[in-house]
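Board notes (copied after class):
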Amino acid sequence: MSSQGSTASNKVTDDELHALILKLQTLLPQLNQGRHGGVSATKVLNETCSYIRRLQKEVDELSERLSQHLGSTDITSFDEEILRNLLQQ
């Protein structure tokens, strides 16, 4: 995680890393249900990656559905431009 030229201020302590892992764990629905205090950092990071992939897939599917809907709906070009700008944010 660190490079040879890094300074002490750039290093993450074990306590900071543990706190970050716990924060990630609270954001994951599958690990935030019930008592999962003993989950390893590896599992939390793997679950985080899987969750991000699922969210990205869901965004892609919803974007595709919206594009199809916009193509079949009679809306003004101004309204369409507003929607596209909102989606790109």
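Comment from the instructor: The CA atoms of residues 4 and 49 lie 28 Å apart. The mean pLDDT is 81.
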